[in-house]
Write a structure and sequence with these properties.
Largest sheet of chain B: 5 strands, mixed
Radius of gyration of chain A: 24 Å
Oligomer: heterodimer
Order of helices and strands of chain A: HEHEHHHEHHHHEHH
Strand order of the largest sheet of chain A: 1-2
Number of helices of chain B: 8
Distance between the termini of chain B: 61 Å
Strand order of the largest sheet of chain B: 3-4-5-6-7
Distance between the termini of chain A: 38 Å
Number of domains of chain A: 2
Number of domains of chain B: 3
Largest sheet of chain A: 2 strands, parallel
């Protein structure tokens, strides 16, 4: 990985110091091998989640390092999925898919929302029930409510329910007119998510908002409890079939 | 109130709108008819007010880009919407109106523009050409396609096909307008109805259907996602559409 990063940087420096060509641009495929840009799309990698005992903090710390020191374009997270006759050091069960989803959300927070790894994962694991941004907001209620008409962009993106695009639109709008609640409906922002955390021109949060014990319960939708069946129907997956035939667990 | 009829040409609207903006006509004084509405109620012609000297009109480039997209929509009120926005920017002093995404007029215009962009994108995917022959003079292959767009997007999409299929002669026939490419220039003729369009299939149709049924992966079938990418309204002119019901049943 370090070797590729070095070559990419070397290539960029070389193209910067080259004298300006006056010929019309030629597609890269037609250039001779020596002049072609090295890996123009950058470098990316993939991590398998749940195959070993790395916790989310270790995974995200590693991702952060890859993005900053190695200048990686993108890190992909794939949930581990077990196969029959696998090595005994591998687990038998796949991790919950929600964990992969939370890792992607955390990855976005690292790259585009200015969060640090300690802010997203103060303990070992990411919260599976709440997305990382909401979880951070619930842990740091002292920083809220945020005034939409005065706060900086860095603070506005910390509000649950506001993404980078919506914040860009709000910044455009507030140069000319104060932001009111009706604007959220027009921008298709979920008022339920946003309301406890913001001050708008015509809204300040009530005391049932941030100080309430029920805030977390109101904001997250708990997963539906699985209704287990009395007689479990025969499993359909390959593992079970192989196990039934060979007797191997 | 003055009635102006503009059928579908953005350039004509642009010139008429510019002259009215220079005179300072307010949007309430104009009724823009796009040739489809039965304008019984508003057909009161009055002479336009003449102002001593026309003022200089400056509109941001974003507005012109937006207007070119909105002009392709079938919405009857698009011309009056565009004029109202132009008037508010140029004469009413709301120079940064297009930044205010929550303004109702701007929102409506953005919604229309987005629909047109999506329509145009889908058109580039779902036009199906059939070979009709080879031109004996210059050995170029000739293709014909029948398509039924919801909006006036043929002029907007034809340049894509020109760049994609430059070395073939093709025609895209629609009820709205027909586009033709002969290797040298793009031309447009009035639209035709479905029974005037050639209905023949060519030899490749069977290969295409066979290919489609073989690459159809039943393990990855997700009907909602499929219908979002390939809306059902386009199915009637796709040769592979009749196969879909059968393939989904088998999956």
């Amino acid at each position: 990985m370090g070797g590729i990063r070095y070559k990419i940087e070397e290539d960029k420096d070389r193209s910067k110091t080259k004298s300006k060509q006056h010929a019309p641009p030629v597609p890269a495929k037609q250039l001779p091998q020596k002049l072609r840009p090295y890996s123009p799309a950058g470098q990316s990698t993939q991590m398998i989640i749940g195959a070993d005992d790395s916790n989310d903090q270790a995974i995200l710390t590693q991702s952060n390092r890859l993005y900053s020191s190695y200048q990686l374009r993108r890190v992909y997270y794939s949930a581990f999925s077990p196969i029959p006759d696998a090595s005994p050091i591998l687990p038998l069960k796949a991790p919950p898919l929600v964990r992969e989803h939370r890792l992607y959300q955390a990855d976005w927070l690292l790259r585009f929302y200015g969060y640090s790894v300690d802010e997203i994962v103060p303990h070992d694991a990411l919260d599976l029930e709440a997305d990382p941004k909401l979880a951070w907001a619930l842990r740091n209620r002292g920083s809220f409510p945020i005034d939409l008409n005065r706060a900086s962009k860095e603070w506005l993106v910390h509000v649950p329910g506001l993404g980078t695009r919506t914040v860009g639109r709000l910044l455009n709008i507030r140069r000319y007119t104060p932001i009111r609640l009706i604007d959220f409906q027009k921008l298709r922002v979920s008022l339920k998510k946003v309301l406890p955390f913001i001050i708008a021109d015509d809204h300040t949060p009530t005391r049932h908002g941030l100080d309430s014990d029920q805030l977390r319960a109101r904001m997250i939708t708990p997963p539906k409890p699985e209704q287990l069946e009395l007689f479990t129907p025969p499993a359909n997956d390959r593992l079970a079939k192989i196990s039934a035939v060979t007797g191997q667990l | 109130m003055q009635t102006i009829t503009i059928e579908r040409n953005f350039q004509i609207w642009r010139d008429v709108a510019r002259s009215h903006l220079q005179m300072g006509t307010s949007p309430d004084e104009l009724f823009w008819d796009d040739g489809t509405a039965e304008s019984g109620l508003f057909a009161i012609e009055t002479s336009p007010l003449l102002v001593a000297e026309p003022r200089e009109i400056r509109l941001p480039r974003d507005f012109v880009d937006l207007a070119k997209w909105v002009a392709g929509h079938v919405d009857q009120n698009r011309w009056s919407l565009l004029y109202r926005i132009a008037w508010r920017i140029a004469i009413n002093g709301e120079r940064h109106l297009l930044n205010l995404e929550t303004d109702n007029d701007v929102r409506r215009a953005n919604v229309l523009a987005k629909e047109i962009r999506r329509d145009r994108h889908k058109m580039t995917a779902f036009v199906r050409f059939r070979k009709t022959g080879i031109n004996p003079e210059n050995e170029r292959e000739q293709y014909v396609a029948w398509f039924e767009p919801d909006n006036f997007i043929v002029e907007l999409t034809a340049p894509f096909f020109k760049n994609r299929f430059t070395s073939m002669d093709w025609s895209i026939l629609t009820p709205d307008c027909c586009a033709h490419w002969d290797g040298k220039q793009l031309s447009f003729t009035p639209g035709i109805s479905k029974h005037e369009a050639p209905q023949t299939e060519d030899a490749l149709d069977n290969y295409w259907r066979s290919y489609y049924s073989h690459i159809f992966n039943p393990a990855r079938l997700k009907l909602n996602a499929m219908r979002a990418e390939m809306p059902v309204k386009y199915w009637k002119n796709l040769p592979e559409a009749p196969l879909i019901a059968e393939l989904t049943k088998k999956a």
